[in-house]
Amino acid sequence: MIKLPGLIDPHVHVREPGQTHKEDWNTATQAALAGGFTAILAMPNTNPPIFDRDTLNLGLGAAKLKARCDYAQFLGAGPQNASKVAHLAKESAGLKMYLDSTFGELRLDDMTLWQSHFEHFPKNAPIVLHAESRTMAAGILFAQLYDRPVHIAHISLKEEIFLIKKAKERGIKVTCEVAPHHLFLTKSDIPAIVGAGLSPALTGRGEVRPRLTVQADVDALWDNLDVIDCFATDHAPHTLEEKDSDTPPPGFPGLETALPLLLTAVDEGRLTLDDIIKKMHTNPKKIFNLPEQKETWVEVDENATYKLRASNMHSRCGWTPFEGMQVKGRVTRVVLRGKEAYKNGNVLAKKGFGKNLRRWDTNHDNKA
Ligand code: DOR
Ligand code: ZN
């Protein structure tokens, strides 16, 4: 048995409010615990998006009632809300800025709109950028111009890891995360993800933003693991009906497959356990300024060998792009703040057990 600290996923699409047919605070946090995560940071591209006091209260209200693991909620940067979100910074996981096209309404095309957020948002509160390729280069330039940290979400390209490496060498305050699907899949896996039974024309199950890449990009990520601060799932559940439609939304679920895939890489000698602890606990805790979760750990059977199956998972979306993949390493038990929260396939933490990590009073209270 291996004991890991409680893992932190800084990038989860919980889908509540508004899209609870895909996922909600109950099912997302069940999936999190089953995947070895004791804290998740929730993205704001819900419906409505979380971008002001009322919508933040809406999201946090649902989380308070339903979450089974600990959490914090991101605010979304919109064209008009720079001073509003700056005032809510302390109550949030941070500010998410969508600088490239993606799922949902939050999008900032014009760099003058980026400017007002960089001017207003407190320097000690996290800013996360969805910024791909050249947009990412512009985002890094903003970090330098405003002399403040930025965290780049889900990097996937060779040119991106190259740029982040160079920026870090220059002392620019940039950190980054990689999602397991960009480490373990390429676009040549899309036919297998789509599955044998479906029309090959329906490639929606392979749609994700950033897109799956080619082997040279995947190799560049593996070759530069030291530049990668965090592994983040970008858990983005959509139903199979939606994924197999003519207008498939992009996104893969990932909470319940990340750790088994990464433990398999440890078994293969491509990664160390220390890498997992750093990139899934120590670094996200530091980057997002999260409190210690006392008496919290994850037990793993490192020898369990099995195939990933959506039918064994807790996410409401009911599918995984990793279906049938052979892995080695299984989460057997999770203890969160002294309580057994998950054991052998069963989530034991009750709805409402999860705490908002941005409420100072809860951070000083170690009891359920
Ligand atoms: O594939 C994606 N899905 N990329 C994103 O940036 C958004 C996400 C979602 O919310 O579905
Ligand atoms: Zn995302």
Give a brief rundown of this model:
This protein is α/β, with parallel strands linked by helices and 368 residues long. It has helices spanning 25-34, 53-66, 82-87, 111-120, 134-145, 158-169, 180-184, 190-194, 215-223, 240-243, 258-267, 273-287, 360-363; strands spanning 2-5, 7-12, 37-42, 70-76, 94-98, 127-130, 150-152, 174-178, 230-231, 297-307, 326-336, 339-343, 346-347.
Task: Please tell me about this protein's structure.
The chain starts with a strand and ends in a 5-residue tail after the last helix. Helix 5 runs parallel beside helix 6 and helix 6 runs parallel beside helix 9. The chain has an 8-stranded parallel beta sheet. It is globular and about 50 Å long. 32% of the residues lie in helices and 19% in strands. The relative contact order is 0.17. Helix 6 links the parallel strand 7 and strand 8. It has one domain: Alpha-Beta Barrel (TIM Barrel), CATH 3.20.20.140. The C terminus is likely disordered. The longest helix is centred in the C-terminal third of the chain and has 15 residues. With 368 residues, it is an alpha/beta fold. It contains 13 helices and 13 strands.
